[in-house]
Amino acid sequence: xxxxxxxxxxxxxxxxxxxxxxxxxxxxxxxxxxxxxxxxxxxxxxxxxxxxxxxxxxxxxxxxxxxxxxxxxxxxxxxxxxxxxxxxxxxxxxxxxxxxxxxxxxxxxxxxxxxxxxxxxxxxxxxxxxxxxxxxxxxxxxxxxxxxxxxxxxxxxxxxxxxxxxxxxxxxxxxxxxxxxxxxxxxxxxxxxxxxxxx
Length: 199
Prior knowledge:
Layout: E1 32-35, E2 40-48, E3 51-58, E4 64-75, E5 82-85, E6 101-103, E7 106-108, E8 117-119, E9 124-125, E10 131-138, E11 144-151, E12 157-161, E13 178-181, E14 185-190, E15 193-198
Antiparallel strand pairs: 1-2, 2-3, 3-4, 4-5, 5-6, 6-7, 8-10, 9-10, 10-11, 11-12, 13-14, 14-15
């Protein structure tokens, strides 16, 4: 691995089995890689068509600092917390496919959950890193679109109903909504329309 000045600082390794025999997550290779900050480096690859694998390392020693399985890996603005979508196996029936989000030490929704969640936006961190948000299409019980705002420290969820119809019936749903944060509110955008909520 090279520093931002172009000097070789360490060599990363991604094992299927560690030298002492510990099994590791398989990975097809680093499909993308780069710097998280000045001291950490990431490798983003895949295990299979529906499962992403994300590793991050200490740039000075090459030591692995963490790994995650899912998709949409997104660091908080201060690069201290990683949020990402949980794994949805590609071979399961569409009636059982349901999204989840992992952030910090939390997962939402907690399992088991009677609702079916199909996320319709990318993950979006608030500028202060205190919340991460996603647009959620709930399909079984509430049957509608919601903005889910998740507290990164407590895991507490605040939910706002959106006015758009939940018309998507095929997996995988498009991420056709965009979330934007300002000092006093969070807004959801799609197809020239916007809905705003106070923070």
